[in-house]
Amino acid sequence: MNGIQGTHMWGLYLSGALLIVLFALFSCSASDDESSVNSIQSGNAANPQGGTSPGGTSQGGTPQVGAPQSGASPSQNASGNALIIDHTSTDLDAIPPEWIEKAKETLHIAYGHTSHGSQITSGMEGLASFKGSLYAYNSGGVGGALDLRDQPFSGASDLGDPDRTAWAISTRSYLNQHPEINVVMWAWCSQADGTAEEINLYLSLMSELEKDYPDVCFVYMTGHLDGTGLTGNLNVRNNQIRQYCRANGKILYDFADIETYDPDGVYYGDRIPNDNCDYDSGRDGVRDANWAIQWQNSHVEGVDWYSCYSAHSQPLNANLKAYAAWRLWATIAVWRF
To answer: What is the pLDDT of residue 214?
Structure first.
């Protein structure tokens, strides 16, 4: 009898051990699958441009807690993870076509800007000519295009014109008249180079809009480069915006970061770059080269890059802004709607 009981107990022990092993294997497999999905969300899958600046810092010199996790989906925002669109988000081929189609089917975008901000839309217009109708956009989404309403607001031109609050008033007015809008984005001209209090005002107004219009995705933005470098006030203010967005799970289109790297991931942030992509090649304090022109000249137009209007800058800059914009639209669409 004791022998039979012992055999029975050993059988139960072995069965339990087998179940533990199987559970561990399943958990590892699930973890690998989740890592794969997160890699796609972040723009790192099949992304050869995932380089960061020396020491893992952004153009602004802050730790890029970020760059590999920058594509966290809007659906993850509630748990504190931000969606950061930056130079790691410019691999157009890494965006699944079905994500782009989802954006065209579900998004209704209102975008306010002046000349610098037009780099995004002029780049997107050129991209549609370069790559075809998959990337088409117009006001209203006619013909299956993305519904992107360019400069639709009255009473404000950008985040600082005519002042630092008019854009928020204009946004409320437009949303009240157009309840179908579910994405709002505004760009800076030069006004991001302000005081800490002025940037806090911007962040506060955005937060109030998010609370009052919970069904709308509001996209934060950094200001374009101005040549003042890592220690300049603009970079300090851009870092203020970045840190707030990361800490509070916001959606950020990092305009400045995108124009700090070339398509190969080469970093120019420590070479006093400006909005025209000029930089200091000799590290002697003089901007004497242009990374965008250099890259364009060493690659094939119509194959590696396309010509388009790019206010205050070079076509390649608008190319990259367009690629990143489509990453933004596609990610919002897939994970929010």
So the answer is: 98
Of 20, 183, 10, give the one whose Cα is nearest residue 109. Answer: 183
15/154 Cα distance (integer angstroms): 71
What pLDDT is stored for residue 80 in this prediction? Answer: 56
Helix 118-131 to helix 315-336 angle, to the nearest 10 degrees? Answer: 90
In a domain, 3, yes or no: no
Alpha helix ranges (H) inside the chain: 2-41, 97-106, 118-131, 166-177, 196-212, 233-248, 255-258, 291-297, 315-336
Question: Of 28, 14, 67, 98, nearest to 334 (Cα)?
Answer: 98
Q: State the 10-residue block means of pLDDT for the chain, 337 residues long.
A: 41 39 34 33 31 36 31 36 97 98 98 97 98 98 98 97 98 98 97 98 98 98 98 98 98 98 98 98 98 98 98 98 98 92
What's the one-letter identity of residue 218? F
Residue 27 lies in a domain: no
- What is the secondary structure of 273-295 as a DSSP string? -BTT-EE-TTSSS---EEHHHHH
CA–CA dist 44, 219 (Å, integer): 21
CB 112 within 8 A of CB 147: no
Residue 58 forms part of a structural domain: yes
In a domain, 20, yes or no: no
Range of the domain at 236: 38-336
Q: Are 270 and 53 in contact (CB under 8 A)?
A: yes
CA dist., res. 335 & res. 76, Å (int):
8
pTM for this one?
0.80
Give Dmax over CA atoms of the chain in angstroms: 93
Give the pLDDT of residue 39. Answer: 33
pLDDT, residue 335, reads: 87
Structural domain count of the chain: 1
30-71-207-201 Cα dihedral, nearest 10 degrees:
150
